[in-house]
Amino acid sequence: MSRPEPTGKPDAPKLSSPAVVETSDADFERDVLERSRDMPVVVDFWATWCQPCRMLGPLLEQVAQEHAGQLTLVKAETERVPRWATQFGVSGIPAVYAVRDGRVVDSFVGLLTESQLRHWIAGILPSEAEKLVTAARALEASDPDAAEAHYRAAMLADERDSRATISLAAFLLHRDRLDDSENLLRQLEERGFLEPEAERVRAELAIRRHGAEVGDVAELRRAVDEAPGDLAARLHLGEALAARGDHQEALELALGVVQAAAGELRDQARQVMLDVFQVLPGDSELVSEYRRRLSTALY
């Protein structure tokens, strides 16, 4: 991006409010990464000896004040945050980064004119659809009907943004409205792909459906006790356990079927394991262990 020449405007008085926060190496993760999960965070890497920084800083602070409650400006003096300056790859200052949900989504280095800066800020603020999704999530527990209405309004506000549809599909699934959730996933699948978040909802939906189809855990345990060699019964028990969140036992049962069965039953057991992997955190030790054991069983 081209860098306009300095405008020569004098420093403005330093602002101090919730919209503008000074950080340090110790507080950076809290001030930037954690805060960015609630609203966009603009990080200004600067130094006292840097004249362009002293010119850009007051303008950033003014714009942040105007958008208080929508974003936070975090002032990061490079000498106080050397570790984070290195991690962000700061090689020149002023260096300004927009962070959302713990990720850098945009950045620039050097000076911007006021109009350029306002245009840049507008690009990182939540859209109307995103605001509606945020409001919907806050209403899920207290007013489910209003939450659903907000999700559907968000879908209409920006038909290209799939996040509202995915969030609504997950919300409806957790309210036991499996058919409605599945219909939303089918709409997304018509594009030819699913985002990882949508894949997670799809996997949980499959687990819930299979669990409902196979029956009661206690009855299935009795069936397995009576016929330990019945691999289909063991898989059904695993599916029922997965549906109620007993993931480790479900994985162990499904793995046993993969190891002992062939053909369609083996494929079904493998898919049960893959669905459970999908709904668990990617860094789960349980996922790592059973992925390795599944790979060994298959190959």
Task: List the total number of helices.
Answer: 14
**Helical content, roughly?**
55-70%
Count of discrete domains: 3
Contiguous uncertain segments of 5+ residues? 1-16
CATH architectural designation of the largest domain: 3-Layer(aba) Sandwich
As laid out across the biggest beta sheet, the strand order is: 1-3-2-4-5
Number of strands: 5
Spell out the CATH superfamily of the largest domain. Answer: Glutaredoxin
CATH class placement of the largest domain? Alpha Beta
Largest sheet: 5 strands, mixed
Rg calculated over all Cα atoms: 26 Å
Q: What is the strand content? A: 5-15%
Q: Per CATH, what is the topology of the largest domain?
A: Glutaredoxin
* Helix and strand run: EHEHEHEEHHHHHHHHHHH
Structure class: alpha/beta
Mean pLDDT: 92
Shape: elongated
Kindly, what is the distance between the CA atoms of the first and last residues, rounded to a whole number of angstroms?
51 Å
Overview of this protein structure:
This protein is of the alpha/beta class. The protein has three domains: 20-124, 3-Layer(aba) Sandwich (Glutaredoxin), CATH 3.40.30.10; 128-194; 212-298, Tetratricopeptide repeat domain (Serine Threonine Protein Phosphatase 5, Tetratricopeptide repeat, Alpha Horseshoe), CATH 1.25.40. Helix content is 59%, strand content 9%. The protein has 14 helices and five strands. α8 packs antiparallel against α9, α10 packs antiparallel against α11 and α12 (247-260) runs parallel beside α14 (285-298). It is elongated and about 80 Å long. The chain starts with 19 loop residues before the first strand and ends with a helix.
